[in-house]
């Protein structure tokens, strides 16, 4: 397993992965409440792969309510603190170290941690135990594409239970930096820099920050820590002319990252040190266009479910994440819409480094209750906090296709929920556009996203062509049988994007265990598949109404065989041919890029 440091924007040298073999058992009867209650561990699992996956060694996709994990690790107590960190555990977790409860967390897609220093045994031999509870039938918790039926059906996939991202230990000083946050401001050539300090309170604390681009030092500043915080803007020298400015700006075409070295100082003594990175880039909406670094930018995106055949929601490793970013770019896309998943931070790192835009979307719950909304608010808040500093993320999407709020046209409380999540998101991050509800029934939103899976290009031209007045589009066109905007929320000139379309099913490679494939349109041959894609893309690209698009989808996902790639990421047709269609060319010459 090639798992790299799990938190790419706050990297310390002293860390230990706890991925690998753990003792494991199911607890369907909820018979155990403490590690001491368990006298037998009948199975072994490979963390961080969920027990439903082949890679875990369990491969059990049945209904299970709870499960337990346990493993030993060596860690001698010392002057430093020891932090135990979890990338994600689905859905609620309790963690014990040497029999002491050290952490509880609810939310299947976001990280949590515990300072376990005081619970370490002097001998250095330690035991960590995890209990994960995830009722497979519960529809009021955010679950994304995880099916509640025994076998995956339609557009839902196998469930994920328990640990599915990296578990690791980190040694930190008694006083240490717990959080860092970057906010670029291109118009002033500034970068906002926030630090939160935790641990023992000491006097005369300051933070030294160095920013560089390659060998070129851009800034070296030092700020006093006041009440455990630093919150400053670092002003860089503005090169002036666009050619020089563009060298420092981040974009998919030129993903310039600025390296950062951060030191926590007590007087002149370095007590904590780590590396990070940031970027200069801006995103905003100007009338009917999405703007990147102050210029109109057409979004060419692909919808990505973030599943792998052997590992489900968990990535097989760091190289697999990098390869997915490289493949999206090789197919001519400049962005992805991560669908119904808060993706592993290592994916976001590779998107930052290689240059790929990302729309981040909250996994849906499927019943509207007060409990469901509270859960969504808590987990969405944690996701924004985790991913705020990644330059690749350009849009937040709290709801998709009215999932979890199915009566938006009639039920006032459901409309308020969407509007509240929109405004909460804008409050937590005022720097990015927000789509309140993507697909239809828009209310509070910065972009109107339309989902339309009609593969007939003539129908697409008739619905969205230049001769169609916008008022007619919103009054009469109802893709999916849904109105595009709710009463009281007429189109205010926001960008209009086709954020789901295509869905052409073609089985390039039979997927083991999949008896019947699913898609919105089916192609029988590779040539038919390629022709449908080329015609659709040509039509969408030349429809002036759209300021961006998102094709469904990146890769086959179980029974949903509508990927441009097979589930194993091999292409169904040559990547060069996909790329040619994606970037406005109808002509593909074999061997040409």
Question: Percent helix among the residues?
Answer: 10-25%
- Mind telling me which CATH architecture of the largest domain this is? Alpha-Beta Barrel
Percentage beta strand: 25-35%
In the predicted model, the low-confidence regions spanning at least 5 consecutive residues are none
Rg estimate, integer Å: 24 Å
**CATH-wise, what's the superfamily of the largest domain?**
Glycosidases
Number of domains: 3
Overall geometric form = globular
- The CATH topology of the largest domain corresponds to TIM Barrel
Protein name: Glycoside hydrolase family 2
Domain Glycoside hydrolase family 2 catalytic: 318-503
Domain Beta-mannosidase-like galactose-binding: 66-146
GO biological process, one term: carbohydrate metabolic process
Describe this structure in words.
- The protein is α/β, with parallel strands linked by helices.
- About 20% of the residues lie in helices and about 30% in strands.
- The strands form 9 sheets. The protein has a 7-stranded parallel β-sheet with strand order 26-25-24-23-33-30-29.
- Strand 25, helix 4 and strand 26 (about 395) form a beta-alpha-beta unit.
- Helix 2 crosses helix 3 (about 345-355), helix 4 packs parallel to helix 5 (about 410-430) and helix 8 (about 525-540) runs parallel beside helix 9 (about 575-580).
- The protein starts with 14 loop residues before the first strand and ends in an 11-residue tail after the last helix.
Structure described in brief:
The chain is an alpha/beta fold. α2 (318-330) packs across α3 (345-354), α4 (370-387) packs parallel to α5 and α8 packs parallel to α9 (575-582).
